[in-house]
């Protein structure tokens, strides 16, 4: 079958030249005895230059440390100003009863409010669902708050152990709402 191949492909299957023979070395590298034992760099220290350490004004790392310190101080003052202005009682996003609210973490970024409602409404009537979005990008942050109408629905063991989005584990204490 190979006789039908073109010459350029036949050249790929031609045998290579044999490996040339080299006489054996007198001693293998690990069998050689060294006249001087291995040592560290201590004997060569005298060959290095001895300079005084650079002054702190010339160090770029000191500049970056001072800049970093100033940035931290500026951020701290901004945080203190924002903390003075923060009023959680007048925040429109912080509404509802905390005892009826369920925190849901690790929510898929493609999950919508209707999907969350469909999954969690089997445990009781839902008053409000709030999916948290990034203010800067507008994309979901991966967690949500679900406020139930009754506190007993939020305390249901099924909602606390709800880990998979398509299978529910029902315990004797908690049954889906009818």
Automatic annotation (TrEMBL):
PROSITE patterns in UniProt: RRM (PS50102)
Any one GO biological process: mRNA splicing, via spliceosome
Location in or out of the cell: Nucleus
Record-level GO cellular component terms: precatalytic spliceosome; U1 snRNP; U2-type prespliceosome
Domain RRM: 100-153
Main localization (coarse): nucleus
Lineage top rank: taxon: Eukaryota
InterPro entries per the UniProt record, alphabetical: Nucleotide-bd_a/b_plait_sf, RBD_domain_sf, RRM_dom, U1_U11-U12_snRNP_70-35kDa, U1snRNP70_N
Keywords: Nucleus, Ribonucleoprotein, RNA-binding
Pfam families: RRM_1, U1snRNP70_N
One Gene Ontology MF term: U1 snRNA binding
Name of the protein in its database record: U1 small nuclear ribonucleoprotein 70 kDa
Organism per entry: Scleropages formosus (Asian bonytongue)
């Amino acid at each position: 079958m190979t006789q039908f191949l073109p010459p350029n492909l036949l050249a790929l299957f031609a045998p290579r030249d044999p490996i040339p023979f080299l006489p054996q070395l007198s001693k293998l590298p690990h069998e050689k005895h060294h006249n001087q034992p291995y040592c560290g760099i201590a004997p060569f220290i005298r060959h290095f230059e001895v300079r005084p350490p650079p002054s702190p004004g010339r160090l770029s790392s000191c500049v970056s440390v001072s800049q970093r310190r100033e940035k931290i101080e500026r951020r701290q003052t901004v945080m203190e100003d924002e903390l003075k202005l923060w009023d959680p009682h007048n925040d429109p996003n912080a509404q509802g009863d905390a005892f009826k609210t369920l925190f849901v973490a690790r929510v898929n970024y493609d999950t919508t409010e209707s999907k969350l409602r469909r999954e969690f409404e089997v445990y009781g009537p839902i008053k409000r669902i709030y999916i948290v979005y990034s203010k800067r990008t507008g994309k979901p942050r991966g967690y949500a708050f679900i406020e139930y109408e009754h506190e007993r629905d939020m305390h249901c063991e099924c909602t606390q152990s709800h880990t998979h989005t398509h299978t529910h584990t029902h315990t004797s204490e908690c049954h889906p709402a009818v």
